[in-house]
Structure formats: structure tokens, C-alpha cells
Design a protein that fits this description.
The chain is an alpha/beta fold. It contains 5 helices and 8 strands.
Length: about 230
């Protein structure tokens, strides 16, 4: 795909304060999933999450070659199709993270991706997903013309279960719909916002899940906050 054919080249402008916000998001996810040796981020964009997440080994996929320049030196940044994860060994990853990613894919590509994610994860590996919750933002969900598939928190849980993942935490409303929100972006205020039981204007959901062991039924109970 050439730069002229790539819909993501030059599409998203850099926003001041995003690194501070993502530092707190990375902290939130780290506390949720625990220690991670190998992290894989899908659709890494400006690399704010993968750069700041505490992992010994970091892989990142994005279709936009412009984003390679924003990856830290310890990030193995790859320009390629994240639904196929070329070059990623099976059973080599502890955590797969994606933000505002699945909604850009058609149903067939999502199924292919989740199957591939299950293969590259180690036994008991985790997936953590952050994306718009259609149930909370139906009027603005398709403001981004590259959105293809509708997801609510219930839809996302159903998709994960169908591909061998058991949700361990479901937050239907974690963050505002867009980084362009007027909510303050100072780190301590972001941290305080994430800790609230009810978050004003939140329309992005967070779901984390663990890969079930083959042949065994999932156990445990997903934590959910509404």
C-alpha cells in the first residue's frame, strides 16, 4: 500500500498533552494486568502507550510508516497488517493491547485477528482493549469515516468469549470519546478521573481478558464498573 492509498497517513494530528494522558492509561493497564515481559500493541499510532508501558520487550504494529519515528529505541516497530501479525512467534507474547483499533475493521478481519492474537499469546496471556462504546456515543461513533464495525461493551465481551478469552475486567465508561476532549490532561487529574466510580463524559470502554487454557472452562468473575 502506497502512502497515497493509505487512509491513515497524515490523518491524525499530534495533540499536546497526549503523552501525559497515556502515561496514566499505561499505569492503569499495568496495575490491571500485572507484570508483563513481552508487550504487543496493535495500531500503535504515536506510540504513547507502548513507549511508556513497563515491559522488557515491546513490539508495535501500525499501517502508517510515519509513526516509526515516534517509537522509542526499545520498541520493535513494524509497519504491517496487525490482523496477521507477520513475524510474531506463537506463544511469545504476554499482553496484546489495542486502543481505538477493532472498530476500524470488518467482521471477518476481527475474527482473523482474535484468532491470531490467541496464537501469539503465551498460556494465560492477556488482551487489553480500549475503544469507543457505541452504547454511550451513538451520535459521534461514525464521526471517524474509517470506523467499520459497531461495538458496545456487551458486543466486545461476546467476541472475546467466542475466541477463547475470558474477560476479567469490564469498564463500559473509562475515558472520553476523543483525546480532543476539554477535560484536563494534567497527570494527577487524569489519574483521579480514572479512579472515579462514575466518570463524566466517558464514552470509551476498557475490557481486559485472559486466554483460557485449551480444554478447560474459564473461571473467575469479570469486574465491571458502571
Amino acid at each position: 500500500m502506497s502512502a497515497s492509498e493509505n487512509p491513515y497517513v497524515g490523518r491524525y494530528r499530534f495533540l499536546r498533552g497526549r503523552q501525559a494522558v497515556w502515561r496514566e492509561i499505561a499505569r492503569f493497564v499495568s496495575r490491571d494486568v500485572g507484570p508483563v515481559e513481552t508487550l504487543l500493541e496493535l495500531g500503535a499510532g504515536w506510540c504513547d502507550f507502548v513507549n511508556q508501558f513497563p515491559a522488557k520487550r515491546k513490539l508495535a504494529f501500525d499501517l502508517n510508516p510515519e509513526m516509526r519515528a515516534h517509537a522509542d529505541k526499545d520498541v520493535d516497530f513494524r509497519v504491517g497488517d496487525a490482523t496477521l501479525l507477520p513475524g510474531v512467534d506463537e506463544g511469545s507474547v504476554d499482553l496484546v493491547f489495542a486502543s481505538n483499533f477493532l472498530e476500524h475493521l470488518e467482521a471477518e478481519a476481527i475474527a482473523r485477528l482474535l484468532d491470531r492474537v490467541a496464537r501469539v499469546l503465551r498460556p494465560g496471556g492477556r488482551v487489553a482493549l480500549l475503544q469507543p462504546n457505541f452504547r454511550l456515543c451513538p451520535r459521534t461513533y461514525f464521526d471517524d469515516s474509517t470506523h467499520r464495525t459497531i461495538f458496545s461493551d456487551a458486543d466486545l465481551v461476546t467476541a472475546l468469549l467466542a475466541h477463547g478469552f475470558y474477560p476479567t475486567r469490564v469498564e463500559p465508561a473509562l475515558l472520553p470519546f476523543s483525546m480532543k476532549s476539554r477535560l484536563p490532561k494534567w497527570p494527577l487529574l487524569v489519574r483521579a478521573y480514572l479512579a472515579l466510580p462514575i466518570r463524566p463524559l466517558a464514552a470509551q470502554m476498557y475490557v481486559s481478558a485472559r486466554l483460557c487454557q485449551e480444554g478447560r472452562s474459564p473461571s473467575g468473575t469479570a469486574r465491571e464498573s458502571r
